[in-house]
Amino acid sequence: MIVPSRGWHFIDWQELWRYRDLFYFLVMRGMKVRYAQSVLGVGWAVVQPVFTMVIFTVVFGTVAKVSSDGAPYAVFSYVALVPWTYFSNALTDASGSLVKNSNLISKVYFPRLIMPLSGVAGKLIDFAIAMTLVAGLMVWYRITPTPWVGVTPFLVFLVILTAAGMGSLLAALAVQYRDVNYGIGFAVQMLMFASPVVYPVSLLPERLRLVYALNPMSGVIEGFRAAYLGTQPMPWDMLAVGAGSALAIAVLGVTYFRRMERNFSDVA
Fold it and tell me: Is the pTM of this model over 0.70?
């Protein structure tokens, strides 16, 4: 017998594991839908950050002459755009996952958390493809990565944690308040300029550095630049604050999602 959850609950890992085949199916379906009958196919995973890099290089690197901490602005911006593009796309997919699959939710039981999590996981493939161009740019500009490239899995984990937490929270809110879906694009754009995508953290006053790090993507982006370009020392202080913030976001998002889960089939 299926009994709706009551109260505030966190993740039921055993239940998620039992439905791993559905999780895999949703991830693969998302990929096929994105690239079906597409000329470039998975090449679109590179097109988005590359074109954005070109625009940012012209506008911010050439015209506005924004500092890039001594690195060529093209690679400076691209190394930031790869994790940011993954985060923004994962967040957008996760936030709309319940509304897009409302028919499935109302007919079949499965742990609803699979929906936003599959949206976050599906974009990892795009991230991996886009990362291959980082190596090409570094060879072109003759940049040697630092030993801190080994920290990359931790940085990616922070992005996943943040996207999953925010995506779960927004997905639950979007079921009852459809305005959320309309506001996601605008919110993501604003959040990009609140993250060091087009500028370095070194431009900020030192006293605001840790406050700025409450946005987990700030430490992640600076961490990528420190690891691959060596523009600054690895920002461990920002990463520590960002990790705590990402964990808080994940706990809040998933807990609220689980709290509202029993109502999804009624209003989706």
Answer: yes
